[in-house]
Amino acid sequence: MSFLLLEKVTNLIFPNVCVSCECIIDKGYDLCSECSKKINFLTEHYCNVCGSVISNNIYTCGKCIINLPPFKVLRSVFAYDEHSKNMIINFKFFDNLNYVKIYAKWMYQVNQDIFQDAEVIIPIPLHKMRLFKRKYNQAALLAKELSKLSNLPYIPLAIKRSRNTTPQASLSPKQREKNLKKAFKTSNKEVIKNKIVILVDDVVTTGATVRSCSQEILNSGAREVRVLSLARTVNDCGIIMQKS
Ligand SMILES: [Zn+2]
Ligand SMILES: [Zn+2]
């Protein structure tokens, strides 16, 4: 079979689809033109600490000035809203592991500064009961792929959940902070001691989880924590401020 024919057959069996609406699109693209217009990629002016979208005459948002987060920066690729919901649902609950490569590529390409001088990549851990229910830890899948792209070591088990915390989605911001206090425990201090750590999450909502985990990493001797997530809510009342 010639290469061209083989390619045609492969395209018929495994067509290239839009990661959002799953319509068939040309090879070399990740999104169809309709979806790429709708997805809110966070490329506008943002807070130089937490990454929330702010007006373009200031550098740091009010929340970060009042209460500086333990991480140095937090960056996300796109807003988690009704337009990007499908992308996250496909990724979180179905076996679309092909998406991991695409999403990690996006995270890497638009956040090159996060990788500058960084030394290790660590995912936000899932408690093993939830890992069992969900099958995969999406943050870990992204972190592993980012490690391949950046050539930085991936340390999956450096941080563990110390107890089975109630799912964050069902709690108010105050309850989330309480729920997460001491929710993480470093199991391998040596690998993060004096290091610049990139902490990877799939979706950041209020930021309480990444704050708590970053604090534990710093308490364990890391020099700096930079948080990178695929998506984030932009209208929550935690550290993420409403788009202005
Ligand atoms: Zn689409
Ligand atoms: Zn901020």
TrEMBL record:
Coiled-coil portions: none
Could you tell me which SUPFAM superfamilies the record lists for this protein? PRTase-like
Domain (Phosphoribosyltransferase): residue spans on this chain: 95-231
Cleaved signal peptide residues: none
Q: Where is the Double zinc ribbon domain?
A: 10-64
The source's superkingdom equals Bacteria
Q: Give the protein family.
A: Belongs to the ComF/GntX family.
Q: What is this protein called?
A: ComF family protein
UniProt source species? Candidatus Wolbachia massiliensis
